[in-house]
Description:
Elements: H1 2-25, H2 29-55, H3 64-89, H4 96-115, H5 125-153, E1 158-164, E2 168-169, E3 175-186, E4 192-208, H6 215-226, E5 237-248, E6 256-257, E7 262-272, E8 279-290, E9 294-296, H7 298-301, E10 304-306, H8 319-322, E11 326-334, H9 337-340, E12 346-352, E13 358-363, H10 375-384, E14 387-397, H11 398-404
Helix pairs in contact: 1-2, 1-4, 2-3, 2-5, 3-4
Amino acid sequence: MVLMTAGLLVSMIFNVLIGWPDASGALTFAQRITGVMFVLSGVVLAGAAIAAFDYWGRRQFRASGAVTLLGVFIVLATDGLLLSLWFEEREYTRHLLVYLPALCWSIWALFLLVRRKSWKGMPHPKKFAAGVVATTLLTAVSLAYSTMYQPAAAPMHFTLKAKFGKAWEDKNLPFVHVPLTLYMKNTGGIPVYIINDIYTVRGRIALYSTGKDDLLTEWRESVEQQGVGEGEAERYVDNLEYTTISSGRFYDLGSSLDVGQEYASQRVIQLPRNVGYDTVRVELQIAYMRKDRGRLDVAEFRSAHRSWNEHAGPYFCEPAVCGGQLIYRGRVRHNNNLINVTRRPRYVTAVWSPGDEFISSISSVPFNFYALGDYSEERRELERYGAARARADSEVAVAELLKSAGI
């Protein structure tokens, strides 16, 4: 009686702790239903613990043995599910010390109750068994829907724009001011976290030719000489060189962008009148993570670690090696709490520096500049949390900008 009651009470507390975060705070309806079902299973286990006390005691209730058996079935099913999820990654977590012994306990309890034929005394044992089977199937379908189908059903779409406006001349300085408009809108069906973003403005210098060589020859020579231009080829333009003019952030790091929400920002860049560029190009990039798959600790994530700071611990990197970078790192919790209790903690890492550096990853390993990471794990976690990128770019001739400024 003591072992049976104690096992049911421990499982009751554990199921409620698993289900409550999803029942109270999950973003999707299916995930909330899953959380509610775990909380309700805890309530049933509390009743089963009382029934076990009665079954091995005075047996005042005829159905106490059947109710105890139902509770043991619930423990066997839930802990079996948790263990099967754990086998996907086989990572040590302290929760394993709860559901692995509980699974062994449920096998022992089931064997004991079946041997004692605890369902005897139940008015309608066949209906009771049918109800247990129906409930199990409904639970399995709900869990499968919430963990596999529903998170992947809503598509992700963004509208990104980056364009230059009409320039104007500065009468007091030999510069031209060029307005820059950056815009994004979440046109998909799911809110997202913006975990990294960057805009970069580059000027292009090119060597113009008469086009005597064919397109393939000029492209091949350009790649051999400078190793650039692999993705584009022009017959009359060769030896392309790009210089970064301006680079910065666009959106508050870690902030969410809800469905239908849009954001625009205005910037002004300065170009010398005789700058020497033939074109100016702007590129806008964002990295995002779906909110229906994870909850980001925004306060922790927004704390920047400077790579050139010698007291930054694992975030320190010699300026001669890394230059200067800002590293952001924060805990992310899966919106299906079954994943959280069967995995090690995951962290979102974003690396940013002006011009080129734009890295976002999700991993369980500690951050270290000099250690090689497990890229297969990163790719798997990025897919699990729905993390991806979107970009937009625009290019304009400098002659057009100077003409719009009246030069």
